[in-house]
């Protein structure tokens, strides 16, 4: 039984749309800090990459591949699933895959929707991902996360009827119908660390891995992030707090644990029978 495994994931995206990353070194400084942290700890992670960023900065992707990290897709331009219909989503995903392949990413096994926007109304995406050859999806946050959290969704790794695997984000759950994101983003920065460590302990004692996520802007107070939540002062403010301590929190959470890329965990623990060489 797994006694403590962390699936470490990073969403490689700009803090807001527009020309921010063109000619601006702050974004790349944050990414460099993450790569340094991973290299110093000899860790391999899964990066969900916005394909338009990969298109503009292929050397960044080359560096991730050089260091042995897994590359997943985070759509072409960081658009939520509810902005697509099935046809446009398939077109967008094929474009993202082509860009990553052309850069040199041989296999793209995983997908994560921006804002964890997989919900019942967009569940058609699961069949499209399976048809395009993805092995897993990591687009579900089974917790209170307006407007896309799914607090009653099953919280552990499981397989959809079509064969695609679901790798949800780890949550802290006291009752079945209410979970709190405990292992990623602003929640990991703002909540007392007890929540994250308690959630990790509860996952590990039943042999489940903990799936952590964060972004480049989560670790650097200098990175401007705009107002992605519109007029919601609480969420926009939360995105700015305690960023200086994020890597320290992650380090304390992963210390003494096995840290894996998602695809490596699926290979070793779930014995997936699907072709692991696609798409």
How far apart the termini lie comes to 30 Å
Low-confidence stretches: none
**Order of secondary-structure elements:** EHEHHEHEHEEEEEHHEHHEH
The global form is globular
Number of continuous helical runs: 10
Give the number of DSSP strands.
11
Biggest sheet overview: 5 strands, parallel
Report strand %: 5-15%
Query: Radius of gyration, rounded?
Result: 17 Å
Residues in helix, %: 25-40%
Average pLDDT works out at 86
SS-based structural class? alpha/beta
Could you explain how this protein is built, in words?
- With 279 residues, the protein is α/β, with parallel strands linked by helices.
- Helix content is 36%, strand content 15%.
- The strands form 3 sheets. Strands 1, 2, 3, 10 and 11 form a 5-stranded parallel sheet that branches. A 4-stranded mixed sheet has the order 4-5-7-6, with helices on one face. The protein has a two-stranded antiparallel ribbon with strand order 8-9.
- Helix 4 (86-103) runs parallel beside helix 5.
- The longest helix has 18 residues, at 86-103.
- The model has no long low-confidence stretch (mean pLDDT 86).
Structural descriptors:
single chain, 279 residues, alpha/beta, 5-stranded parallel sheet, 4-stranded mixed sheet, 10 helices, 11 strands, globular
Outline the secondary-structure elements.
Layout: E1 5-12, H1 26-41, E2 46-49, H2 51-56, H3 58-66, E3 70-73, H4 86-103, E4 110-111, H5 124-131, E5 136-137, E6 158-159, E7 165-166, E8 171-175, E9 178-181, H6 185-190, H7 193-205, E10 210-214, H8 233-238, H9 246-254, E11 258-260, H10 262-270
Parallel strand pairs: 1-2, 1-10, 1-11, 2-3, 4-5, 5-7
Antiparallel strand pairs: 6-7, 8-9
